[in-house]
Amino acid sequence: MRSARIAVLEHDQDLIFGANYDFYEREDGYPGLQATYGLRFRHSGVELEIGLKYQAIGEEEVDVTNIFTTDGRLEAYDLVVLEDDLNFFPSYFATTLIRNETLETYPELLGILNALGNQISDAEMIHMNYLVETDNLDPKKVAQDFLTEKGLLD
Prior knowledge:
Blueprint: H1 4-11, E1 16-19, H2 30-37, E2 43-47, H3 53-58, E3 64-65, H4 73-76, H5 100-105, H6 109-115, H7 122-133, H8 139-149
Parallel strand pairs: 1-2, 1-3
């Protein structure tokens, strides 16, 4: 099976790329993406409001856009995320931050928060974001259900 990236490379001249305006200006945005992968889209200057990218791709105004890999709208629009096999984009990993004063007051939080480490896959995060963003479920309820399912909450 050929990768989706190869298919995009072979047909980039037929595709329309759209992104939020600052993506076109950043070195770790469109200029670097174009240089790293050798992409030459048919039209690549479509500027989109960050919140409207998914609507634009859903309405076929653009064929390709930049995304966050855990965005719930990926599931809503049934999109394919291309692998960045040349490692152009930096990885951003979520982490837990807590004030020292809070830990001094509630030292039991350290074990509780550490138990959450490496518990959420990208697919699970996409689905939870989908439930909140698209199905309008309460974020607290979605988080509680997830923690209960993982055995981290009674």
